[in-house]
Each structure stands twice: as structure tokens, then as C-alpha cells.
Amino acid sequence: MLVARAGTPKPILERFNAEMKQIMATPEMQKRIASMGLIPLDPAPLVETDRYIKSEIVKWRTLLTAIGLAGTQ
């Protein structure tokens, strides 16, 4: 997953995503990723990535609150 700081304009995020799709589709990159023991994946659409990050925030916030660690940083 490639991330950018909050507030990055959507056209820039879309270009990053398109570029990563192109890079990840090359046989050389597929081979390099696999050689590290990873599974080469096609980058998800921006909407899916945003949804995933938001769900992770909720999941971890809930866990940290439940065990009494929320807000301790």
C-alpha cells in the first residue's frame, strides 16, 4: 500500500494509484515481490483503500479502548 499525507489532492492520489498499477503489473516487479516471499497484488482502487484504512482505525481504536490504552500516546 502506498500512502500520502492527509489533504493530498485527489488527482495526485489517482495518478499515484495508476502508476503503482502499471509498476505492479510488470513481470520484473511481480518476480521481485515474489522473491521476497510476498504475494504481488494489484493495488486496490482508492475507495477500497480508504474504506480499509477507516475500518482499521475503528478496529484498533475499539481494541485499545477496551484494554484501557486509548489516548495513552
Care to give the gist of this entry?
This protein is mainly α. The protein has helices at residues 10-24, 27-35, 46-66.
Distinctive features:
73 residues; 3 helices; extended; 62% helix; mainly alpha
Account of the protein in words:
The protein has 73 residues and is mainly α. It folds into two domains: 9-42; 43-73. The chain has three helices and no strands. The longest helix is centred in the last third of the chain and has 21 residues, at 46-66. It is extended and about 45 Å long. It starts with 9 loop residues before the first helix and ends in a 7-residue tail after the last helix. The model has no long low-confidence stretch (mean pLDDT 93).
Biggest sheet architecture: none
Shape: extended
In round numbers, the mean pLDDT is 93
Number of helices: 3
Beta-strand portion reads: under 5%
Distance between the termini: 25 Å
**How many separate structural domains?**
2
Q: Structural class of the secondary structure composition?
A: mainly alpha
Gyration radius (Cα, Å) is 16 Å
User: Which residues form runs of ≥5 with pLDDT under 50?
Assistant: none
- Provide the succession of SSEs: HHH
Number of strands: 0
Query: How helical, in percent, are the residues?
Result: 55-70%
